[in-house]
């Protein structure tokens, strides 16, 4: 990363070669649209090239992979926001769409509300672990690096959070 920060094109190419397949898989887990994934990858590596000098790295116990994923996740959120603002019309003909039954809508709303309430009841450190592992798709090791805690702490927080959610939703 230091060489990339100094403008070393070969170092940046090596960083891209080593991390882009992994990053693309992570992004595809959160977005099925290949065009969006390709755009986000391009924006991510452009940001990395421009901001490599701001990566604190070893000075803050930070991980280059964690930093890279954070940039990519933020770019993906930006892409989702842009898409929502554009309010694209669905390609499915209206005759093919079926409305869910009123009971299904009510039950789905209750489940969503119960889940949101249960998540908000969790301590912040447990929510952070769940967000990183479930929503962002990070491994235990990556989550530990991102949150700057031991892997064992990540595992225990994830387990306690899942137990608490299970109890709250049953």
From TrEMBL:
Keywords, comma-separated and alphabetical: Sigma factor, Transcription, Transcription regulation
Secretion signal span: none
A single GO BP: DNA-templated transcription initiation
GO MF term list: DNA binding; sigma factor activity
Residue ranges constituting the RNA polymerase sigma-70 region domain according to the UniProt record: 15-85
Domain RNA polymerase sigma factor 70 region 4 type: 113-165
Pfam families, per database record: Sigma70_r2 (PF04542), Sigma70_r4_2 (PF08281)
Transcription regulation among keywords: yes
Alphabetical list of InterPro entries matching this protein: RNA_pol_sigma-70-like (IPR039425), RNA_pol_sigma-70_dom (IPR014284), RNA_pol_sigma70_r2 (IPR007627), RNA_pol_sigma70_r4_t2 (IPR013249), RNA_pol_sigma_r2 (IPR013325), RNA_pol_sigma_r3/r4-like (IPR013324), WH-like_DNA-bd_sf (IPR036388)
Family, as annotated: Belongs to the sigma-70 factor family. ECF subfamily.
PANTHER family for the chain: RNA POLYMERASE ECF-TYPE SIGMA FACTO (PTHR43133), RNA POLYMERASE SIGMA-70 FACTOR ECF SUBFAMILY (PTHR43133:SF46)
Protein name: RNA polymerase sigma-E factor
Organism for this UniProt entry: Actinoplanes friuliensis DSM 7358
